[in-house]
Amino acid sequence: MPPDGPVTMAVHSLPLPELDPPKRSRSRWTLWLVLAVCAAPVIASYFSFYVLDLRGRAYSDLITPTRDMPAELELTTLQGAPVPAKTLQGQWLLTYVPDRTCDSGCERMLFMQRQLREMLGKDRDKLDKLVLVPDDVALTPAQIDALTGHGAPATVLRAKREVLEGWLMAAPGHRMGEHLFLVDPMGRWMLRSPATPEPTALKKDLERLMRANAGWDRPGR
Fold it and tell me: Tens of pLDDT along 192-217?
């Protein structure tokens, strides 16, 4: 019989519950899939900037860093109904902002905006036409009809001039109405055409961007 001695106690940690390995793996893959879907527009934009090396070959001005759609951008239809700015996201936006009056130069730019989209051919459905009309600019009934009455009408919205001028800026020595602006699917301004652009050269920039986003973009908003 063993001699008497002090009583010793051993304390063991309780086993912790573990996720079943297959469930843990599925959860991890689901998380990565959600992150990939959310980040797709960001990845596409950086692919366009760096992998395609647009900086050295672009006809237009690349805006770096990109400029986010301002939180104070309040949009309305031409009839005055409010439109949430976030509804513009999810699509490339070829954007035009008329000057104090929509004169013959303005009408030429609007025609060019429409033609550029059509010139993209099978990629044209990846690009929407957006016209942001400052609150102090009046459009004639004929101009409104030209913008909204065609097979692929533009989205025409009003906004405060000071907010637009703080976001989409003209090149030094030029006016906003001389440019076309490209806004990416995250609502960031990332490209500005030269003043009174040459359509064929600008089309090449748009084609490069549409090709870069072919894998994820969806036609139409």
Answer: 999 999 999 999 999 888 777 655 55
Q: Which among 155, 184, 203 has a CA at the least distance from the CA of 92?
A: 184
**Structure-token match 């599925």, residue found:** 26
Q: Is the dihedral of CA 51, 57, 60, 64 positive or negative?
A: positive
Q: Which of 90, 60, 72, 47 is nearest to 188 (CA)?
A: 90
The overall average pLDDT reported for the chain is 81
Question: Which segment of 117-121, 195-199, 217-221 scores lowest on mean pLDDT?
Answer: 217-221
Do the bridges between strand 155-159 and strand 127-134 make them parallel or antiparallel, or are there none, so unpaired? Answer: parallel
Task: Choose which CATH entry (3.40.50.10320, 1.10.10.60, 3.50.50.60, 3.40.30.10) describes domain 22-212.
Answer: 3.40.30.10
What are the structural domain ranges in the chain?
22-212
Question: Model-level pTM?
Answer: 0.76
Return d(Cα 185, Cα 123) in angstroms, integer.
15
